[in-house]
């Protein structure tokens, strides 16, 4: 009976989104459908035209304004709530993503446990692994000539790094990529019973790997993040909170970077002159290309905050328990803040910091690692594959909150294979 009620609520909600998106042309509904997957930026312009803070049909607010997004993300009078992040869950199942869906003081306590794994010293120690992984992946890709950028390069790189960080032995990159994409896609909400079953299977599979690892590290501590988390058990983190934190680090460590690399290469190949510029000076321009991608087409497109009290914002009063959906992808193209906001330009001198990694206390803890991986990936790609070109149509993942390609066929002429 519980499963039937869940299915009925799920399909009712889905029909509601389809009706309001395609029939009533509601912008927020369209963001959850194919138009939002194909080109959310056109929908963001519609939201922006409605004002700084726009009411939604569900009684909340949405904003495409950079100043308001930035202010709300940093305002301690707003917070997150797990039900908003996860959407309707499967019967008896709730995907706990640790401090990602916690407010202070729990958020502060749990983030403090995870933070040391992403310290400057720790991140710097991963440069060698990232460089070796990138070159090994490019060796294999170049040997093929034509390859899919996502499973051949963009996905296995962050998986190699995050599984090493956590201390997962003999990680199966393909399996982790599939499970990570399934869980990441569920942040948008569950699309149907089949999707719910896939999510449960993926979550169970990852939890089995992580539970076995936690058991191993209790007996044999090592110099990895899981061992360091376990060292804080009882004092800073409870036993029941360890698995969700490991799950969050694994999924988030994969999702951001794989989509950042995919979006960056997609943008660069769409702008051949800038790809040529990067290839001419990769050591200098790789970092700028990553930052411009984060501004222009970020992996995470939106998030939301719930008001803890009545708060004035954008000329309106946000009531307690109302949400404000902050459209990060729209804020990063706000023409009142960024000149030529809709133009991709790796030579840009930005007028403000982008919001791709959120802001305030929920600023992405893994941002330095994602940046380092993406910069090295783009630099080596430009150095070794200057004639990289498309070999087919890109296919985007079936999600709109997380944006990135799931299939990206490309070709590089093996005759220009360079040494490293």
Automatic annotation (TrEMBL):
The keyword Iron applies. The keyword Endoplasmic reticulum does not apply. GO terms for biological process: antibiotic biosynthetic process; cholesterol catabolic process. Keywords: Heme, Iron, Metal-binding, Monooxygenase, Oxidoreductase. One of its GO terms (molecular function) is heme binding. Belongs to the cytochrome P450 family. This is Cytochrome P450. It comes from Actinoplanes lutulentus. The lineage of its organism: Bacteria, Bacillati, Actinomycetota, Actinomycetes, Micromonosporales.
